[in-house]
Amino acid sequence: MEQSRMYRIAMKKEPEGGYTVTVPALPGCITYGENIDEAISMAEEAIELYIQELQSRGDEIPDDSNTLEYSIHLKSA
User: Fold this and answer.
1) Which residue has the higher pLDDT, 22 or 65?
2) Looking at the domain assignment, is residue 73 inside a domain?
3) What pTM does this model have?
């Protein structure tokens, strides 16, 4: 039976174009896409491959199912 997991991704717009994507729950899981849709698709693929590698080694598979996230905007004085 397949287990459902949730992952946050962070997309950083690059000066030369495109987006670098990181997955905080999976250290070293980084990918890139030319646009937001491609970046998301590449992130899904990178996460799947990362999980497969963890499973092949018998390692625990972390996820973000118990993570709460907030953004705080501070104004400079």
Assistant:
1) 22
2) no
3) 0.84
